[in-house]
Amino acid sequence: MRRIALKFGLIAVAGGILLATLGLGGASTARPTLVYGGSADPTYLDPALVSDGESFRVTAAIMEGLVYLKPGTTKVKPRLAIRWKTSGKGKIWTFWLRRGVKFHDGTPFNASAVCFNFNRWYNWKGPFQDASATFYYQAIYYGFKHNEVAGLGAPLYRSCSARGPYKVSIRLRRPSGTFFPSLVVSSFAMQSPKALKQYGADEGELRNGTFVVTGSYAFSHPTGTGPFKFKSWTVGQKVELVRNGDYWGNKAKIDRLIIRPIGTSTGRLQALQNGEVNAYDLAAPQDAATIRSNSKLKVITRPPFNVAYVTIHQGGNSPMNDIKVRQAVAYGLNKQAVVSQFYFGVGKVAKEFIPPSLPGWSDKVETYPYNPTKARQLLNSSSCHVPCKVDFWYPTGISRPYMPDPARNFQAFSASLEASGFQVTAHSAPWRPTYVAKVNEGSAGDLNLIGWSGDYGDPDNFVGTFFKSPNPQFNFQNPAIFNVLTRAANEANYAKRVKLYRQANILIMKYLPAVPYAHSLSLLGAEKRVHNLIAEPTGGTFFQYVTVG
Amino acid sequence: MLRYVVRRLLLIVPILLGLSILVFFWVRALPGSPISSLLGERATPQLVQQYRERYGFDEPVYKQYFKQLKSWARADFGTSIATHRQISDEIKQRFPATMELAIAALIFAGGIGVPLGFFAAKKHGGLFDHASLFLSLIGISIPVFFLAIILKYIFAVRLGWLPTVGRISVLIETDHPTNFYVLDAIITRDWNALWDVLKHLILPAVALGSIPLAIITRITRAAVLDVQNEDYVRTARAKGLPPLTVDRRHILRNALLPISTIIGLQAGLLLSGAVLTETVFAYPGIGSWLRDAIFNRDYPVIQGGILFIALVFVLVNLIVDISYAIINPRIRYS
Amino acid sequence: MSVAEVEAREIQLEAPSGLWSEAWRRLRRNPAAIVGFVLVSIFVFVALFAPLVAPYGPLEQGLEGELNFASPSWGHPFGLDPLGRDLFSRVVYGARYSLLIGVVSVAVGLSIGMVIGALAGYLGGWIDSILMRLMDIMLAIPGLLLAIGIVAALGPGLTQIMAAVGATQIPIFARLLRGSILATRETDYVLAARSVGVKGRPILVSHILPNSLSPVIVQGTLALATAIIDVAGLGFLGLGPQDPSTPEWGTMLTDTTRYLQTAPFLALIPGAAIVFSVLGFNLIGDGLREALDPRFRGRA
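Structure tokens for the assembled complex are given below, as produced in the milestone run.
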């Protein structure tokens, strides 16, 4: 009798354990969670009102634009719009929208939602016109319906009309080549009109000189169409997103995406080593070896999207006015040595201003490998004989992704210039608060070290920003370069545009308003069991296809 | 007694006023503008000019000062340039975290320091005494951030026993009614969360509490040594009271007086040590907030943060002084 | 500072003259103080004679070819850092920076603080009140934060952090000297001297000042220790010397903690150097305090 009871008991216990395990893993259809380490909290979760990478990292998972960059590249591909065409001499853009897409609050994505978003931006007033509030809108569209703040230009946008539920026309006031590629920028993602209205997305004010959002939309109700939905945001701790089970495309393979801010790269590294994050961004290049030496971890690279260059300031009686002197500078900079020694293995020598991943990059530009003899010859046949005196500036107190150690770059370049017939007078200033201002206004000597990180995947953001029109930093006049860049910026036809930028790059590297010398990769650290984590050249991370384990 | 409290309270006013003036002019002494640090390479002259006009420094100084005083009185400490959040909101969010950490550090320091000092005094001159003195000296000599880094490396990265960052695991879902996570976990009876929060507190509390531990050990030892030789202790012993009772009732209780005042004064060390410790552990309190602000040259935050911490420090000192006066009648009647 | 602290301090100050010889005797018998003295002597010696002690320069890179991160060996007792520099030499040269920082900061704090304290203590009245209120305001901000605030205004750099740390020491020395002067002013021998007709200045110089000095000396050594630690902390926050090749111990720590897993000695050794030199000053300061404090008499 006892033995039977015992047997029963054992079976019951075993059954109970089995059931319990099933029950626990009855989340066995549960997908994993990915914890990702960023460097800071987002500012706001309304991408139209921010310009920092940490905010975009979150909003890009929640919201989508009409088009997007194929993950890991800078090729523009359909997203919420499936095809498009231009008419009216490039002033009218018609988009055919994807059907069956819903916002996270259940409302449909359609043409009127698109127009709502565009008109929302265009009609912004008062504090929303502050440069700190709507940086990208102002950068692309220049102005609003009624400009109230100084420094705004004539608006590019005219109107938006819905031609049926899935066809929308956007009218611009003038043809623009930047309008279409800019649609990939997270600021221009499509957000739910209902949620925007319901949660006061357009309530904001200027407080103590800073733009502040006062509605709750940007803190707790960001609503888009993306593969992840917003769950919660605890400042200083984490942003939690959950899988969108009704997503129109390939649904996410993880149930939860948690992004946590850890202020220092060493902190993020140690969190990865300790298993508190599964992956993290902005890994210091010095840590690459440490990560690789761990059999459970790996390094993911992000294609370079920046450029380090030496400004050449012309004008007045500067020796730099002479093309031969500028060529001598180009030949006199030992770029290869600097890139291999001071970039911790993540640098590449730059041939031109835009990085290779960007359309418009040309293989046919003139290059200037280090050649001190040639440099001397050029100088002696120029207006500035050997030794040619130059004032060379560099910044202190800073490390930039494109220039990890400015002082070392400077010392090496200084030495190679001197070997090439120049006489260098060194100057330096702290990055904050003076250096950048001096470079921008053209008061940082004949040569100075500076760089640029791209905002969005468009060559205008690189070369257009600098060379489209006269700029005190470089202080040169070259109508050919101004013209081709302006035409390219306004050219609506994508293929033509790319050709124009290639031309522009060839011209720039011939004329040498500055000498680009390096691009640098950025790195992510991750556990080996994290797959399909894609680092975007523009700085974001693409989470849609990520799997863990 | 009341007179003393009132006098003490009045003393605070000139200090607070002085602080406000100091901080106000400090802001104006900052080089350049924080705008350039925010905009980086994008700091085109036009944008900088726009911002410069915004932070209008054109009104007469005294008017600006009174405007500033009025906002401070309303607990409006300004807006962070980097995060666009109200500084008072950030303080409300982050100060409980730092307070929790500071209290944990004090419990660690006091809980170990008092018994350590007590036994060192009892075994005065012996090996234990010398060892504890030496250890406490080492405690004062190790920079807080160095200790934090080493503790983190050994117990988290190497041994994996404890976490390296934050207050609570990101995977845990729980409510935070008071924002004091330990208290919250107890209130909501979430024992899993409680254990997790405690795990996150251990390393930073030990690092932060290392210096107070050293100081409390020494003060306890000195205080106990003093009290031990007092007449009333000798009388108690002569009366034949068991040694433990003598210890508890007479020695400890009287030694506790100087010890408790010292504990209150550790607030300054704890608040400044928090900046370093919280940075190492990415602990979301006032300390790491200040460090980020320094890094970003976010001057409204640096200003608001320093002012707030000074306020807290002054208040803590006030409370310590008043309680000291309550406990020690000699002060009251002086 | 509060009543409690002032009270505690005042008890310490009642030391009649003739203290020095006995103090010296007790110091010599104190093993902890002797250890401290040894540590500090090594530190000062290494700092002063760095070029002789260090086999290499602190900035020489690429030693041993491209072999970076080398572990300790005979040729390089502390190993090589990521840029191929000899860690031993860098630590040795680092002693110079730490000594310089400590001495300058304390000198700044001490000199300005003592002047303020002397004026307040000796002149009394409303000068005393104002000066002490100013000191109270400075003390209302905890040390490191005050230093951070000053450096934020001055900008980062080695001289700036020395000034900032020095400034944080001022109120401590001011209060100390003032309290000391106040106490000695009322002692019998000063009153006696006054009653005989000795005037202000001679009393100050020959009676009050010498007897107020002992706590200042103690505080000075302890202040040196605090200065070295505070500067390391400021360096860790990124406010110190901006050139990362500067062999200052605190700055050396900031960049090497990332290598704890692969090359722990890079961070541990400069850290240990800080700990030992600070410990030395603390030991001496402690020994001095015990030697000079009458309360500990008969308690060897």
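The two ends of chain B are 10 Å apart (CA to CA). The mean pLDDT of chain B is 80. Further analysis is deferred to the final report.
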